[in-house]
Specification:
Elements: E1 7-9, H1 13-24, E2 29-31, E3 38-42, H2 46-56, E4 65-67, H3 71-74, H4 82-91, E5 96-101, H5 110-113, E6 118-122, H6 127-136, E7 140-141, H7 156-163, E8 169-171, E9 183-186, E10 193-196, H8 202-209, E11 235-237, E12 248-251, E13 259-260, H9 267-282, E14 288-291, H10 300-310
Parallel strand pairs: 1-8, 2-8, 4-6, 5-9, 11-14, 12-13, 12-14
Antiparallel strand pairs: 2-3, 3-7, 4-7, 5-6, 9-10
Helix pairs in contact: 1-6
């Protein structure tokens, strides 16, 4: 899909209604969530969902998350269970996605699930996203609004830099407050599984469930599981304390660096700053980006997941 000009829509009722009209007509609109900007299309519309994959250059075997306005709406599309109930009431709306079995007669495009018999669903907390879901009355498939595999967008400017001319519009809601994608938890086979760490800590999820989360297992079962993902153009080197050659150093805590994720070593602040910092450093076209060690607890687990995929060998 090619458009002459990607529109920037304001954070107003008129902007929400314009975005909703575009979505109902099968167009694509990038919109803010509390995690990152999502590239939204009507999840029931085969052409709209296919256009999401085309605009991003996303592999068709990589499933999408469906964004919904309420738990009641979720019941239309999935087979609900007690684990989903506990997690949903504790953390929705918010940065958590649940993967559940599809309900018979669900009406979603089969492209959304990439051929799986489960679907990923989420209730976003961002006011603009929730308004669009209500006004459009569309379940919205919405992966991150960036070219596949590249740094995720946390501002409308990031979206425009990657997708200008490929989508109808961007609803500008300012910077995203959480800054990393949602935590994805599988609750489809009797065992709760951490499929992707994200904006909800694993510790909080396990506390609500009263049991530990198992691993993801083999194969692609949810978005964000590709080995190489979230990558800047520059090569990324992890657990660095000094620069090598012409690298730029992305720091954490008190240290000499080019840009710091959190001078106070706060992993929540670092998560918010991660993708903007990678965008800023990559725009300088460095030989490489070295990243300081990040503690692997709380949101640090999500940060390290993104960094490991950003640093992975690329095809």
């Amino acid at each position: 899909m090619v458009v002459e000009n990607t529109l920037i829509l304001p954070d107003t009722d008129a902007g929400v209604h314009h975005a909703s009209e575009l979505l109902r007509s099968g167009q694509l609109v990038a919109l803010p969530t509390e995690t990152v900007y999502g590239l939204a299309g009507d999840a029931r519309n085969d052409a709209a969902v296919a256009a999401i994959y085309e605009a991003k250059g996303r592999p068709s075997f990589n499933p999408l998350i469906v964004h919904l306005p309420s738990i009641e709406a979720a019941h239309r599309y999935v087979v609900w269970n007690e684990m989903a109930e506990a997690l949903a009431h504790a953390f929705w709306p918010g940065p958590m996605t649940l993967v559940l079995p599809l309900k018979e007669g669900h009406g979603l495009s089969p492209l959304v699930t990439a051929g799986l018999d489960t679907v990923a669903i989420r209730l976003p907390a961002h006011d603009l996203a929730r308004k669009v879901l209500t006004v459009s009355e569309c379940p919205l498939a919405a992966p991150s609004a960036n070219p596949s595999g590249k740094i995720s967008p946390t501002t409308a400017g990031h979206v425009m830099a990657g997708l200008n001319g490929r989508i109808a519009a961007i609803l500008d809601g300012g910077p995203c407050p959480v800054g990393v994608e949602s935590t994805i938890i599988g609750v489809y086979d009797g065992t709760p599984r951490l499929l992707r760490p994200g904006g909800l800590s694993m510790e909080d999820a396990e506390g609500a469930l009263g049991q530990p989360l198992a691993g993801a297992g083999a194969g692609i079962t949810a978005p964000g599981q590709l080995v190489s993902h979230y990558a800047p153009g520059a090569k990324v080197r992890l657990n660095a304390t000094t620069r090598e050659g012409d690298e730029l150093l992305l720091g954490f805590g008190e240290m000499d660096c080019d840009l710091n994720l959190s001078e106070t070593a706060d992993v929540t602040e670092a998560a918010t700053n991660l993708f903007p910092a990678l965008h800023t450093l990559d725009a300088l076209a460095p030989h490489g980006i070295a990243v300081a060690p990040i503690p692997n607890h709380g949101l640090g687990l999500a940060i390290n997941d993104r960094l490991n995929r950003a640093a992975a060998p690329r095809d």
